[in-house]
Design goal:
Layout (H helix, E strand, L loop, with lengths): L1 H6 L5 H32 L7 H17 L13 H18 L16 H11 L2 H15 L8 H12 L10 H13 L6 E3 L9 H6 L5 E7 L4 H7 L2 H10 L2 E7 L7 H11 L3 E5 L2 H11 L17 E5 L5 E3 L5 H6 L8
Parallel strand pairs: 1-4, 2-3, 3-4
Antiparallel strand pairs: 2-5, 5-6
Helix pairs in contact: 2-3, 2-4, 4-5, 6-7
Length: 342
Amino acid sequence: LFKNLLEEKKITSSFYTLIENDRNCFYAFASAWLYSWDVLRILRNRNNNYDEAKMTEIVGTLTDIYEKYKPDDMHLMKSPQWKSYALFMYIKIYKQYLFKEVNTNNVDSLLSPENILFWFEQIKESFQGKALEAALALLIYERGGLKGYGVSSITYYDYFLEHFPNSPYLKYFKDQMDETVAFYEEATFDPSVHFVEPSDSIHTFQQLLELFRGKRLYIDVWGTWCGPCRLQFKYKDLLEPILQKNNIIPLYIVINAVNEQTNTWEGLIKTYNLKGYHFRANKLFIEDLNRIYNPDNANNAEGKISFLIPWYMLVDEEGNIVEKHFKRPSDLVKDSLAIFLY
C-alpha cells in the first residue's frame, strides 16, 4: 500500500522510510516477544523435560532477530515499539539470559528492580552516542526518582549528567532527579522505624514472632519490585491511627532480600516513611512463608517465592496467626469502624 502511494507520489520518500522503519521495528518486536516468552516458559518448567536443543534453537533465532534489526539503530528508535523491543526484550530478557545463570528458581526475578545496575551496564555496552543518550533518558524518565527505582536511579542519573550535560531530554526529568538526590543526601530514618537484626539468623516465621511475644502485629509481606505493594503504602498515614487505636504494631517483611541491594530497600522505607518494624527475609525464611501460604504444597522449588504479594496477616499476642489473609490498608481505611475481631 505505502509503496504504491510512494510510486504515485502521494507520499514523500522520507515519510515512506519512516513507515518502513516503524513496520520493521514492529515486526522485530512481535517476533522477539513470541520467542522471548518461549524462553521464559521453558525456564519456568525446567525441571519437567527440559529441552536444551529447543532452547538453543530459540535463543539462536532471537540472536538473528537482533542482528537483523539492531536495537541501537537510530531509525528504529523513531518507532513507538522501540522501547519494548530494545529495553525490555533485548536488555531485560535476552541479555540477562546470556550473561546470568537463569533457572527455574530465579526466572521470575528477571524483571525485578534488583537488576537495575545490570540493565544500566548492558545499556552502556549496547548503545553509543545519541542512541545511548535516548535509552538512558527514557529509563530515567520512566523509572527514576523517589517513586521509581529511588536511590539506584541516582547512579545512572549521575552518569547521564557527566556524559550528556546539555541533553535536550534533561528538562523532562531533571527536577525530579535533583529532588531525589537531595532527599537521599539529607534523609534519615524516622525514630519510629526499627530494623530486626540479625536477619540472617532468623529462618522461620515463628522465630520472628517470638521477638514480638505479647504484641499484636499487622504483617505486610512485600517486595521492592512490587507495584501493588507500593500502591498500598500511600494509605500509611491513614492506617497508622487505626493500628494505634487497636494497639497493633506494623511489621514489614521484604522478601527479595537474598539478592536485593540494601540501598533500594532502605530507600523505599525512607521514601514512604514506613514507621514500624522491618525484616529482610532470607532464603530459608521465604521457604517457610511458602509453607504457611500453601501448606498442601510440599514441593516448592528451593528458595522460590510461590505466594502472591502484597500479603497481609494479623497475629495475636501469643504469636498465633488470627487472619492468614487479612485486609489491605486500603480496605481497612475504607472501613471507618476498623473493627478487629479475635
